[in-house]
Design a protein that fits this description.
CATH class of one domain: Alpha Beta
Low-confidence stretches: 32-117
Largest sheet: 6 strands, mixed
Order of helices and strands: HHEEHHEEHHEHEHHEEHH
Helix content: 25-40%
Distance between the termini: 45 Å
Strand order of the largest sheet: 3-5-4-6-8-7
Mean pLDDT: 76
Radius of gyration: 20 Å
Number of strands: 8
Structural class: alpha/beta
Shape: globular
């Protein structure tokens, strides 16, 4: 009887923690900050502090109307609100320009077309307006994409959203149930936790850019998109079809750091990647297949917020990873 009572109490405690874990990320992170051991972390390049106050007025925020996806006869009709067919781009403080740029190019076999670079038509670095237009055009292409079967079963494609001049970019694996309905990345429970993680770094969601490897919802049972718990990770074919879209977004935004959320995105973006555990705790230089970058971009792997919801004990390790990013970017956690 005593064993049954203990198991019952343990089950109740697990349910209670599962319902409240999102609320305690910042406090849990603060508790473990001293133990994280990041006094030894030194950035290769000390970036200037990020301006956290918006540098543009509300009138300079642009709402782009996206092209509606082409109708698919085999797909059940779904009503959409106007907001689901738009991409909001919020301008922030322009990214400081580096005095020197380095072109990182991967060796290409003879006859391979030259990779695209992040340059404006005039030949210089892309302006905010050019970045905004390029991302909007790319989002329209994504919303009409049918390169893989996910395009036939999605409700909404999810291109990504955020600051076109973001210094920091988060990349997950693929949209889930809530994202498929809203056409926006990380808006469910995992997205709410990601917002808290970003806030713990002293930033706002509007100051970063958030996207996924796969731009459409991978489902276990594609014939029943209305079902909850129907999510799965994108497979290799789906990642290969969507990869060029993410790489183009990275080349346009040109963040200083990309944070890969979870093993799927980490292994897709980090060369010779093995397990997430083997990748964590170290910066890598991002290497892309379809585009070349005008300067190096660092990438760091950490846990996906959905994994932190299932395993709250991993939050202290996720916070340690985020502190590495903060140290590199010169960010400080908000004071209590």
């Amino acid at each position: 009887m005593a064993d049954k009572s203990v198991r019952a109490l343990a089950a109740e405690l697990k349910n209670f923690l599962s319902a409240h874990e999102e609320e305690d990320f910042i406090s849990a992170a603060a508790t473990n900050q001293a133990a994280a051991g990041f006094s030894h972390v030194k950035a290769d390049v000390q970036a200037p502090p990020l301006h956290t106050k918006p540098a543009h007025s509300v009138s300079e925020q642009v709402l782009y109307q996206e092209a509606a996806p082409a109708p698919k006869p085999a797909k059940k009709a779904v009503s959409h609100s106007p907001a689901q067919d738009t991409l909001t781009v919020v301008f922030g403080q322009p990214v400081p320009q580096h005095p020197q740029t380095i072109t990182v190019e991967k060796p290409q076999p003879a006859g391979t077309p030259a990779a695209e670079e992040n340059v404006s038509p005039a030949g210089g670095a892309m302006t905010t307006e050019e970045k905004t237009a390029a991302l909007a055009e790319l989002a329209a292409t994504i919303k009409n994409c049918s390169r893989c079967p996910l395009g036939d079963t999605r409700l909404n494609a999810v291109p990504g959203e955020g600051n076109v001049n973001a210094r920091l970019m988060f990349v997950g694996e693929g949209p889930g149930y809530d994202e498929d309905r809203q056409g926006r990345p990380f808006v469910g429970r995992a997205g709410q936790l990601l917002d808290k993680m970003i806030a713990a770094m002293g930033l706002k969601r509007e100051e970063v850019f958030i996207a996924n490897i796969a731009k459409c919802h991978p489902m276990v049972d594609p014939q029943h998109p209305e079902k909850h718990g129907n999510d799965r990770a994108p497979n290799a074919q789906e990642i290969a079809c969507c990869r060029k879209y993410l790489e183009k977004q990275i080349s346009i935004i040109m963040p200083e750091i990309v944070v890969a959320l979870g093993g799927v995105s980490a292994k897709a973006l980090i060369a010779d990647a093995k397990s997430l555990g083997a990748l964590r705790g170290k910066f890598y230089t991002l290497s892309l297949d379809s585009v070349s970058l005008p300067r190096p971009v660092k990438i760091l792997a950490t846990f996906h917020p959905a994994a932190l919801l299932r395993n709250p004990g991993w939050k202290k390790d996720a916070w340690a990873d985020l502190q590495m990013v903060m140290a590199h970017m010169g960010l400080k956690a908000p004071s209590k």
